[in-house]
Amino acid sequence: MPELPDVEALARRLRQRILRRRITRVALPDPSVVRSPRPSVFGRRLRGRSIRDVGRRGKYFLVHLSGGLVIVGHLRMTGDIAVVRRTDPLRPHTRLMIGFDGDELRFVDQRRFGHVELVGARALDTVSGLRRLGVEPLDPAFTPARLRALLRGRRGALKALLLRQDLIAGIGNIFADEILYQARLHPARQIRTLRPLEIGAFYRSIRRVLRRAVRALSRRRGAEGTLLAVRAPGGVCPRCGGPLRVARIAGRTTYFCPRCQR
DNA sequence: CTTGTGCCCTGACCGC
DNA sequence: TGCGGTCAGGGCACAA
Question: Is A234 exposed, middle or buried (0-12, 13-18, 19+ CB in 10 A)?
Fold first, then answer.
């Protein structure tokens, strides 16, 4: 589930809850979530440090610690993080706990695709995956000109482009569909056939969809009047009322409205 | 360069 | 109710 808006909302929530707090305890019910260093070292390195900041890059979350260390993590398909009372019952699939006095950060992940690693702040750009990420779509650096440059000379479907983390960071299957829906562009539409007006609509849709989702998720609100809300077999287009279509595009299950999206 | 496949895991769901 | 097959919103390596 987690894409850029989810991870951004998570980072904001964490910032409110654990900023400046000191780690007193680390537990690893499933040591395999830690990529590096070795799980036994991981806990020892964390204890005693305090949280300096919590950030995000693409779908990765970054917890900056005192002493120039950073926890880099990815939630993949089923990961989630919550800060709860230390006495609260453990949810199933809890993989990692980081304790502060009274509270505890818990990394829960049913499918065990998610992971964390601990790196020096200086070495952040050596983290594979993080290193190859493209532009942040909500950053001022992502301008219409930047998007045009990204599209220039490129072939393939719009949906495939949106899913490429090395071009634009943080968009996953769900929001790719939503962005194309709002831009009224067909997911299989070829990049090189886009007209200037459509590129403009594409750009605005990327920004608008992600920004609104960040806002909604940060307030723990749902999304209304969107494809998101009706994304299910038998779903109906909120705009024209016609049936949605499901297809495999760019290797992913794709929902779209064949009438509204061209 | 682009697309497709399989894989890492677990659980939900469907049809028989 | 039980069983096996299929699929899932990510990312990576690899092949064509």
Answer: exposed
Cβ atoms within 10 Å of A139's Cβ, excluding its own: 10
Amino acid at A81: I
What is the rounded CA–CA span in Å between residue A58 and residue A125?
13
The three-class DSSP label of residue A81 is strand
Check if residue A250 sits with its Cβ under 7 angstroms from strand B: yes
Sign of CA dihedral A159, A60, A217, A222: positive
pLDDT score of A27: 96
**How confident is the model at residue A236, as a pLDDT?**
87
Q: Which of A13, A45, A164, A252 is catalytic?
A: A252
Asked if A42 contacts A34 with a C-beta cutoff of 8 angstroms, the reply is yes
Separation in Å: C6 C1' and A253 CA: 14
User: Residue A13 CB: number of other CB atoms within 10 A?
Assistant: 17
Question: A253 CA, B7 C1': separation in Å?
Answer: 18
Chain C bases near protein CB atoms (7 A cut-off):
7-13
By C1' distance from the Cα of A251, the closest nucleotide is B4
DSSP letter for A153, please. Answer: T
**Count of alpha carbons within 13 Å of A48, Cβ hemisphere only?**
4
Active site residue A159: no
Site of tokens 């287009």? A237
A92 has catalytic annotation: no
Report pTM. Answer: 0.96
List, in sequence order, every residue forming a beta bridge with A69; answer none if it has no partner. Answer: A65, A120
pLDDT, average across residues A149-159: 95
Phi, psi for A167 (deg, rounded to 5): -105, -60
